[in-house]
């Protein structure tokens, strides 16, 4: 008797999982698949590519449907227990009831994901206006299922439940078959060909070395007050001797990686192919953009994606070189015979022949590890020349964190996280300062080895993350009634300025390591401002970034310049003695 009960329970559970998978696959392929592909910027170019995507989506939707069905089964069983009598036809009851229960269970799970992550259902407001129509459509769907159930039970010879299973499978396959017709993929311009730099007429060669620093999230709101009181001697000297400008960010919400792709190539996302901050590597599929928006309808898919990343099934990482369809500026210079070093900018993995000294963005641990990104291993994370110069040593896990530097930024690092923070800002600070410290140490090692290196490009992502996490404590007056607690502002507010002082001090040491005075360009991809609606951060990207340029090639100018993403490549090539590359927007700041 016990064995039959166990077998019956097992058959019931397997039946529930099977119906959940079928309904999930049918609903997913028909309703969600186009949106999911567009959010990932998937662009299958062949029939085999579409078939592969459809097969993966079939499995993903089926798995999510099966998981949701386990929750729905509790309702089915509870209803039977409550009514104290068996269903007249368990197979058809479960098969049709799963279809009715799957949508609300799925939405409840999505709401739980958002509420558990962000302390409230962030995207509910976005869908509130669609709620009446959606509820009406759902009720009609339930009525249809109920009528179908009554029709089945009313027949003398009831049709087998396999007919419903076949119908759901056919619906899923039909959704997969028409998927290419339902996904709107904008026509993309042909990727620019490799750019050949030509020496500018009259250029004599022997340009001063160039230090190119990407300070992610650099903003005048924090820089200007510190410059005014003389707290940033390195930045202050660069501004007083050279030029300054406002970097005009485009494409809200001003994601960093698409911005840097445009800055480094002078081409738009449509031309260079970069649309997101992180890429998802799925076995058998082309690289996908990792979605960074919160969306109630798709959150369970994103949760599954990050879970698979934690398990090592898929990988979420910085965009590799193949993601960028246009050559970055260091590659142009290297091809023109200019020896170049690049440390931790995106689009540097695998570290091949794009420049002599390369430490790729896949080396070390940055704050994207909070989103399941992991550092890479192996020879491709740095060029042979970079390894010989010891540039990877600072990124080793064997090198301990700098506890004294962390204590300088925040004396009481063991304090509890503030109540208003979704992500603990102290954890963010620990990771941010370490990746920037190690990056700057690697850069300084390179200049000590090669003090006459013509071009060095260094990317510092940490300041952006510190502004995300600490902005409300630095500028509490910008938050009105939502301002943080006074004790949190008093203790955490100075972190942003102290971080800038750390960058200023270390940058000054790097400049001093050169054998001759270098040209220095420091720029950001966007600025920062207060934000009251973002689900994770209360400091968010703004359109006003920074540009500071000084050195032998830059005459001083008092009036600030308006700077475009597209002005940077022409400026860099001009400084290095080359004519503006053909087919690029923007102009050299030296020619203003």
Please summarize what this structure is:
The protein is 48% helix and 9% strand.
Give the secondary structure arrangement, pairings included.
Layout: H1 2-39, H2 47-83, H3 90-118, H4 124-128, H5 131-154, H6 162-177, H7 179-182, E1 210-215, H8 220-228, H9 233-241, E2 243-248, H10 256-265, H11 269-272, E3 279-281, E4 288-289, H12 299-310, E5 315-317, H13 329-335, E6 340-343, E7 357-359, H14 384-388, H15 403-409, H16 425-449, E8 455-460, H17 462-474, H18 486-492, H19 495-512, E9 519-523, E10 527-530, E11 539-542, E12 544-550, E13 561-563, H20 568-575
Parallel strand pairs: 1-8, 1-9, 2-13, 6-7, 6-8
Antiparallel strand pairs: 2-12, 3-4, 3-5, 9-12, 10-11
Helix pairs in contact: 1-2, 1-3, 1-6, 2-3, 3-5, 16-17, 16-19, 17-18, 17-19
Extended strand count: 13
The residue ranges in which pLDDT falls below 50 over 5 or more consecutive positions are none
Measured on Cα atoms, how large is the radius of gyration?
Answer: 28 Å
Global shape: elongated
Q: Strand pairing plus helix content: what structural class?
A: alpha/beta
First-to-last CA distance: 90 Å
What share of the residues does DSSP label as strand, in percent? 5-15%
Largest sheet: 8 strands, mixed
Helix content: 40-55%
Q: Please tally the helical runs, counting DSSP H or I stretches of 4 or more residues.
A: 20
Task: Report strand order across the widest sheet.
Answer: 7-6-8-1-9-12-2-13
Mean pLDDT: 91
């Amino acid at each position: 008797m016990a064995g039959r009960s166990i077998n019956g329970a097992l058959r019931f559970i397997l039946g529930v999982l099977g119906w959940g998978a079928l309904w999930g696959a049918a609903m997913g392929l028909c309703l969600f698949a186009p949106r999911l592909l567009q959010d990932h910027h998937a662009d299958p170019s062949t029939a085999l590519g579409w078939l592969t995507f459809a097969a993966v989506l079939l499995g993903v939707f089926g798995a999510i449907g099966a998981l949701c069905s386990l929750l729905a089964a509790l309702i089915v069983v509870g209803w039977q227990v409550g009514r104290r009598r068996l269903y007249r036809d368990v197979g058809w009851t479960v098969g049709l009831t799963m279809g009715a229960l799957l949508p609300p269970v799925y939405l409840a799970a999505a709401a739980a994901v958002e509420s558990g992550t962000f302390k409230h259902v962030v995207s509910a407001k976005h869908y509130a206006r669609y709620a009446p129509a959606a509820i009406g459509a759902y009720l009609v769907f339930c009525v249809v299922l109920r009528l179908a159930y009554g029709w089945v039970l009313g027949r003398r010879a009831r049709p087998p439940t396999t007919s419903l299973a076949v119908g759901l499978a056919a619906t899923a396959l039909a959704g997969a078959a028409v998927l290419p017709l339902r996904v709107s993929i904008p026509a993309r311009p042909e990727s620019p060909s490799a750019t050949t730099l030509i020496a500018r007429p009259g250029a004599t060669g022997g340009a001063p070395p160039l230090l190119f620093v990407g300070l992610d999230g650099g903003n005048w709101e924090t820089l200007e007050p510190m410059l005014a009181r003389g707290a940033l001697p390195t930045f202050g000297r660069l501004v007083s001797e050279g030029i300054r400008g406002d970097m005009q960010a485009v494409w809200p919400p001003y994601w960093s990686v698409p911005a840097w792709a445009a800055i480094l190539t002078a081409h738009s996302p449509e031309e260079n192919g970069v649309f997101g901050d992180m890429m998802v590597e799925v076995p058998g599929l082309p690289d996908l953009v990792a979605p960074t928006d919160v969306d109630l309808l798709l959150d369970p898919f994103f949760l599954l994606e990050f879970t698979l990343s934690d398990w090592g099934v898929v990988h979420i990482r910085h965009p590799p070189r193949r993601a960028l369809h246009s050559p970055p500026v260091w590659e142009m210079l290297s091809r023109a015979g200019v020896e170049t070093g690049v440390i931790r900018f995106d689009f540097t993995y695998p570290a091949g022949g794009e420049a002599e000294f390369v430490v790729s963005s896949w080396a070390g641990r940055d704050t994207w590890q909070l989103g399941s990104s992991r550092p890479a291993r192996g020879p491709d994370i740095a060029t042979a020349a970079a390894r010989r110069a010891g540039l990877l040593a600072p990124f080793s896990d064997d090198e301990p964190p700098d506890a004294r530097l962390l204590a300088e930024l925040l004396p009481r690092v063991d304090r509890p996280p503030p109540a208003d923070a979704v992500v603990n800002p102290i954890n963010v600070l620990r990771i941010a300062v370490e990746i920037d410290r190690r990056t700057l140490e690697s850069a300084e090692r390179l200049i000590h080895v090669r003090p006459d290196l013509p071009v060095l490009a260094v990317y510092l992502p940490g300041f952006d993350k510190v502004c995300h996490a600490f902005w409300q404590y630095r500028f509490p007056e910008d938050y009105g009634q939502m301002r943080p607690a006074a004790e949190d502002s008093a203790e955490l507010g100075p972190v942003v300025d102290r971080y800038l002082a750390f960058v200023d001090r270390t940058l000054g040491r790097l400049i001093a390591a050169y054998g001759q005075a270098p040209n220095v360009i420091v720029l950001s991809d966007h600025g920062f401002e207060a934000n009251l609606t973002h689900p994770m951060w209360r400091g968010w990207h703004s359109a006003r970034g920074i540009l500071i340029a000084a050195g032998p090639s830059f005459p001083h100018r008092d009036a600030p310049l308006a700077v475009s993403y597209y002005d940077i490549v022409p400026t860099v090539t001009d400084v290095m003695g080359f004519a503006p590359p053909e087919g690029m927007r923007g102009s050299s700041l030296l020619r203003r």
